[in-house]
User: Fold this.
Amino acid sequence: MVALVDIGQLPPVGEVPDRMHAQVVRQDRFGDPRTAFQPEVVDVPDLGPDDVLIGVMAAGINFNNVWAARGVPIDVIAVRQKAGEPYDFHIGGSDTSGIVYAVGSAVEGISVGDEVVTHPGWWDPTDPAIAAGKDPMISPSAGIWGYNTNFGSFGQFCVAQSHQVMTKAPQLTWEEAAAPTLVGTTAYRMLFGWEGNTVGDGDVVLVWCGSGGLGTQAIQLTVAHGGRAVAVVSSDERGEFCKQLGAVGYVNRKDFDHWGVPPHWTDQEGQREWTAGCRAFGKAVWEQLGERRNPDIVFEHPGEATVPTSIFVCEPGGMVVICAGTTGYTAVADLRYHWTRQKRLQGSHGTNDEQALAYNQLVIDGEIDPCVGDVFSFDDIGEAHYQMESGVGAFGNRVALIGASEPGLGRN
Ligand code: NDP
Assistant:
C-alpha cells in the first residue's frame, strides 16, 4: 500500500495511494471562500474506463469555485447528488498541471508519466446529442470539470476524462502551465467559435476586465489573430498592464456612472441620461482607437452592470459574446437598437476539444503568456478565491501549488 504523502510532493510516478489531501467544500460551510474551503484527507477516487488520474503539481484558481464555495447560483453538491453521485462534498479546481499516474482500461494515447494540463469541457461521451453531431459543449450532459464535477485539481490527485487531457507546454513551470487553460480556452471559443463573428485582421474587440483571467487571454488571442483590442479596466495601472499585453488602449470604467439596468424606455429623462453615458463611453473607445470605429466584438462577462452598454456600442452586425454575469444576471437589451442594427448577443460556455487543442498549441508555441499573478500555497486556496472575489491582488491568473514544492519547477 502506498502511504499518504505530504503536500509539496507526490509519490513515485505510477504509485497511487489510497488517501490524499484535498481542499474540500461542504454544504454546511457554504459562504466566505476562506472558511468554505477546508483541508481534509479523503479517498483517492476510482477511475472509469475512459478516465485519467493525474498527480496535481499546481492548480489554477478560477471564479467558478468562488460560486461553488458560496453555493450560488447553484448548490453543485445537491445537483450531483440528485443525479446519483454519492459524495456529500465538493473538490473543485478546473485547471491542472501535473503527471499522469493511472489511466482507465479504454484510454489510448495517454501514458503514465506524461506531463499534462487539462481543459475544462466535460460531457457524457454516450450523450445522444453528441452522437447526433451537436457540439459536445452544447449537449445536455455538458458541464465544467472541477465545478459541475467532483475531484478537480484542489486535491493531490484529480480525475479527468481522457479527451480533456492535453500536453503541457514544456517551457512552462508547473504554476505557469496550470494558470491559463480554463480562461484561455473559454476566450478562444468566444472569439473564434461563433461563425460569422470571429476575430480577423483589423477587427476591433472591446475586452471587459482586460487585466483579469479571461481578459488577459482575450487581448492576446485578439492580437495573435491581427485584431485590435481595447480593454476596459478599473485603474490606469491595470490599463497599462493591458497595453503591455498588446491592447491598443484602455478605458477606465470608473470615469462613467451609467452602469446597471437602464431606466425603462418610457422614462424619457432617465433614458436621455443613460444614453448620454453610453455615448460618452463609446467616444472614449473611439479615442483609444484613433478613429470613429465601434467594436466588431464585445467580449462580455460582467453581465448586468455592463451588457446594456456593450450592446449599445457594438458595431451593427457585430456580436456581444458573453460567458458570465459576475455583477448579476438581469441584463436588459434595448430591442430598438438590437434589431434595427442587427447585432448578435451570443452566449458562450467552456470549450470543445478542437478549440482547447488550438488554444493549447498557441501556448506551446509561446504565443500566449499565461499571465501568472499570485502563487498561493495549498493551505491558502480559500484565501485565493476570496481575493479573486474581492478583486484584490495581482493582475492575471492565480495559481496554487499542490505537488510542486516551490515555484519555478517543471520547465523542461
Ligand atoms: P476576474 O476576477 O479576472 O475578472 C473579474 C473582473 O470583473 C474584475 O477583475 C474586475 O475588473 C471586473 N469587475 C468587477 N466589478 C465590475 C463591475 N461592476 N463592472 C465591470 N467590471 C467589473 O475573473 P475571470 O476573468 O476569471 O472570470 C470572470 C467571470 O467569468 C466570472 O464570473 C467567471 O465565473 C466567469 N467565467 C465563465 C467561464 C465560462 O466558461 N462560462 C469561464 C471563465 C470564467 P476591473 O476592476 O479591472 O474592471
In short: The radius of gyration is 21 Å. The domain at 19-182+351-401 is CATH 3.90.180.10 (Quinone Oxidoreductase; Chain A, domain 1). The first strand starts at residue 19 and ends at 26. The chain has two domains: 19-182+351-401, 194-347.
